[in-house]
Design brief:
By secondary structure, this protein is α/β, with parallel strands linked by helices. Pathway: Nitrogen metabolism; (S)-allantoin degradation; allantoate from (S)-allantoin: step 1/1.
């Protein structure tokens, strides 16, 4: 029986920060006590460092099995632990096989054995060929499913069209799981843009209209679903275009079950500051200008955007074409899993956000979205003892040497941030301490119906 307590003058509980002692027994939060309460068990006193609920990142590409040279469960979950993420949800691509069948999902579950440093849920995928298999896939334990409206870059994961979405929605509504959508529609007219080493040429090749039209389509699909009595949950992943925010707001006001996320790279980087030939900044949809970035922050403030996730989408350095600066050929994806909290905190604190606000945006709301909010996302009695210990004032430079994900490349190298994760606890197990991993991987798969 593991029985101990954590103590701090700054603990985030019930949407406020206050002095407290958290008593832990058998991987769960057993009780929350006043700061002066006496206990017979060991008490770890963290002084004035902030004890926060472990972060829940619902958008991570781990790529195992099949493309483990890009990333794997061991390195990805170590990076997560170093970033204070105690729960992540893995995407159905770019692994081989893609997670579109029960058999493929079982293969992924076998691949995670003894490799998880944090707890891990899984999204399945919807492609035109697997609509008939969705019931079986959802019954196997995925937390929801994802589709692309545009070429995913992976031949095994083709995009869906309106007829496929219509066929999938009643099944997803029956299981009451979210339908995650990569919302870009190739509207044509931009295929003749020549992509050079200029970042703006890549930006011109994927205009806001692609996102705007895709999101408008998904609102139509959601309306149809509601009219039929299904009211399927629709979720827009990695929103980049500020022009789509009004459409999202109207969908919510209509009573559609419509949500949207954005990511640190859209909130912390502006296209005009991206040097030419720097392929590490390539992602889809693209990073846009500073005015767009400010509008996304406003949408975070007023609730049009629901939460912030990493969209960690790594590949090998060779696939990034770092040496040639060939943006057109480079794989699109940002690698920054462990740096999300300091990146966001550095920007958010200057805009009047508190760490309580950040906890909502990166922990409690993401846990609820993934259907994990009975056990994850807050410090409360009976919940998993998932914590991060945060120094909100420590300022430092991100370097390639501190990276824990598989390949030590990130567009954030050289950037100064404020806020450092000092310790991470997963279900009461101390897994990370000041740049060191402790003991063995103790993370567990999180399966719908078996939580």
């Amino acid at each position: 029986m593991k029985h101990f307590a954590l103590k701090s003058k700054n603990v985030i509980i019930n949407d406020e920060m206050k002095p407290a002692i958290i008593e832990v027994k058998d991987e769960l939060i057993f009780a929350i006590h006043g700061y002066e309460h006496e206990l017979s068990c060991e008490i770890k006193d963290f002084g004035s460092l902030v004890i926060m609920p472990g972060l829940v990142d619902s958008h991570v590409h781990i790529n195992e099995p099949g493309r483990t040279e890009w990333e794997g469960f061991n390195t990805a979950t170590q990076a997560a632990a170093a970033g204070g993420i105690t729960t992540l949800v893995d995407m159905p691509l770019n692994c081989i096989p893609v997670t579109t069948t029960k058999a493929a999902f079982q293969e992924k579950l076998e691949a995670v054995h003894d490799k998880l440093w944090v707890d891990c849920g899984f999204w399945g995928g919807v492609i035109p060929q697997n609509i008939g298999d969705l019931d079986e896939l959802l019954n196997a334990g995925v937390l929801g499913v994802k589709s692309f409206l545009i070429d995913s870059g992976i031949t095994e994961f083709p995009n869906v069209e309106a007829k496929d979405i219509r066929a999938a929605m009643p099944i997803l509504a029956k299981h009451d799981v979210p339908y995650l959508i990569h919302a870009e529609l190739d509207c044509g007219g931009f295929n003749d843009v020549v992509i050079s080493d200029k970042y703006n040429s890549f930006l011109e090749s994927r205009p806001k209209k692609w996102e705007n039209d895709a999101i408008a389509l998904m609102v139509e699909m959601a309306r149809e679903s509601k009219a039929k009595g299904d009211n399927c949950k629709v979720h827009i992943v990695h929103l980049s275009s500020d022009e789509a925010l009004d459409t999202i707001e109207k969908a919510k006001k209509e009573g559609l079950r419509f949500t949207a996320e954005t990511c640190p790279h859209y909130l912390t980087i502006a296209s005009e500051n991206i040097p030419d030939g720097k392929t590490l900044f390539k992602c889809c949809p693209p990073i846009r200008d500073n005015k767009n970035r400010e509008h996304l922050w406003q949408a975070i403030t007023d609730g049009r955007l629901d939460f912030i996730v990493s969209d960690h989408s790594p590949c090998t350095p060779e696939l990034k074409h770092i040496d040639t600066g060939d943006i057109e050929k480079a794989w699109g994806g940002i690698s920054a899993l462990q740096f999300g909290l300091p990146l966001i905190w550095s920007e958010a604190k200057e805009r009047g956000f508190s760490l309580v606000d950040i906890t909502k945006l990166m922990s409690s709301k993401t846990a609820k979205f993934a259907g994990l909010d009975r056990i994850k996302g807050q410090i409360a009695t009976g919940f998993h003892a998932d914590f991060l210990i945060f120094n909100p004032d420590h300022r430092y430079e991100i370097t390639n040497e501190m990276i824990k994900h598989r390949h030590n490349i990130t567009p954030y190298a050289g950037r100064w941030v404020t806020g450092q994760v000092e310790h991470t606890f997963v279900r009461g197990h101390h897994v990370y301490q000041q740049d060191q991993f402790i003991n063995e991987p103790i993370g567990k798969p999180l399966l719908k119906g078996k939580l």
